[in-house]
Amino acid sequence: MILYELIGFDTLRVIWWALLGVLLIGFALTDGFDMGVGALLPFVARTDVERRVAINTVGPVWEGNQVWFILGGGAIFAAWPPLYAVSFSGFYLAMFVILAALILRPVAFKYRSKRDSRAWRSGWDWALFIGGAVPALLFGVAVGNVLLGVPFYLTEDLMPMYDGTFHGKFLGLLRPFALLAGVVSLSMLLMHGAAWLGLKAEGAVAARARTIGTGAGMVAAAGYLLAGVWLAFGIDGFALAGEAATNGPSNPLYSEVTRGGSWLDAYAARPWIAIAPLMALAGIAMAVRGLRAGHDVSTLLWSKLGITGIISSVGLTMFPFILPSTVNPDASLTVWDASSSHQTLFVMLVATVIFMPLILAYTAWVYKVLWGKVTEADVTENSGSVY
Predict the structure, then answer these.
(1) In this structure, is residue 257 part of a structural domain?
(2) In this structure, are residues 153 and 327 in contact, taking their beta carbons and an 8 Å threshold?
């Protein structure tokens, strides 16, 4: 009870904003290389054995890596109910496509080797490509739309209403800047998947992955820089008109929001956040260098740093906004007015403090047990290899 009183509502809101970022980054760092390997599969592996090698580098871990996605969705639902309501209704069709692609992936893993048929296995290999490339692209498109603002408003009883037709809820998301963000996301995860294959595979598979990953990293860096210039000069940002009520009620309609200026004005107000884009560019540059030089562990670590920087830069640039509205800026969701209650956030934090270390410890143990490269002999001679 004393701890509950010591941790203020405003502090808990910031903690859960940061934890949401940690969960999204955790998902990108772990399941990101799974999606990257799937998207690279038809291009880095030319024979059935080579494709089995690539698949078996992620086969034992992909299910555990998806836990971060589930935790992220759960955190949004419990800690930020208005965000969950608006995003999952407004982005409904896009979410459906993402989930369909993610569901296709485990089916492909399980069924690919059920028949010794070249056409059968090739079809499931392309299913793995879809299961990796489509979510990687659309997650970036979603982030791009968040930066642009979403056409929703709130009624007096806080009922979220989303403007646009049913089909427009998907096609309307495919705006030029959002597509650029999607390209950055896809190329970033292709680079990450290539770094993973460079670590876990050998021979031609690893060599092709490094070649493609080098190009993908360059595209990611160029796209990220272009997005920054676009944000600076071509997209209006959002800002609170007055002082934020950090301990106020969770009612976005109490805030007054203005639209104009640039999202990048945040770097003048909080110069320290420039560390995020610097991490992004440095991480990508060093990952590309490592891919070209044939380094293994360090390349994957640099790739993780680059991804962390890219995702962090979005959150830090937008703070305190988490979902701005283009229809009624005053309805924009912020850290200060879209959270659950003080008690809910506290109970969730206690559970997180208890269970998060257990998840991290188990994950570290799994990767330690599975350490080492996957060879062609492993998949042809080991009866335990099912992929």
Answers:
(1) no
(2) yes
Percent helix / strand / coil, the chain, rounded to 5: 75, 5, 20
Structural domain of residue 69, as residue ranges?
A: 2-231+342-381
What's at 167, amino acid-wise?
A: H
Q: Are 334 and 321 in contact (CB under 8 A)?
A: yes
Contacts of 250 (CB under 8 A, 6+ apart): 82, 337, 338, 339, 340, 341
Q: Residues 6 or more apart from 207 whose CB is under 8 A from it?
A: none
User: Each residue of 295-350: pLDDT tens digit?
Assistant: 989 999 999 999 999 999 999 999 999 999 988 898 899 999 899 999 999 999 99
Q: Which residues contact 125 (CB under 8 A, 6 or more apart)?
A: 41, 42, 51, 108, 112
Question: What is the full DSSP assignment across 31-62?
Answer: HHHHHHHHHHHHHH--SHHHHHHHHHHHTTTH
Single-letter amino acid, residue 246: T
Cβ contacts of 200 within 8 Å, gap of 6 or more: 57, 373, 374
Looking at the structure of the chain, the number of domains it has is 1
pLDDT value of residue 126: 94
Left if phi > 0, otherwise alpha if psi is -120 to 50, otherwise beta: which for 182?
alpha
pLDDT above 60: residue 166: no
Spatial separation of the C-alpha atoms in residues 190 and 336, rounded to whole Å: 36
Whether omega for the bond prior to residue 60 falls within 30 degrees of 0, making it cis, is no
Tell me whether residue 179 is in a domain: yes
What is the three-class DSSP state of 209? helix
pLDDT of residue 165: 58
Contact 62, 131 (CB under 8 A): no
What's the Cα-to-Cα distance from 365 to each of 32, 343, 360, 369, rounded to whole Å? 19, 34, 9, 6
Output b/e per residue, 127-143; b: 16+ Cβ within 10 A. bbbbbbbbbbbbbbbbb
For residue 274, being part of any structural domain is answered with no
- Give the contacts of 245 (CB within 8 A, at least 6 positions apart): 254, 255, 336, 337
Domain for residue 56, yes or no?
Answer: yes
25-62 per-position pLDDT tens digit? 999 999 999 999 999 999 999 999 999 999 999 988 88
Q: What's the rounded Cα separation, in Å, for the pair 240 and 386?
A: 55
AA identity, residue 66: Q
- Within 8 A by CB and 6+ apart from 224, the residues are 184, 277, 280, 281, 284, 310
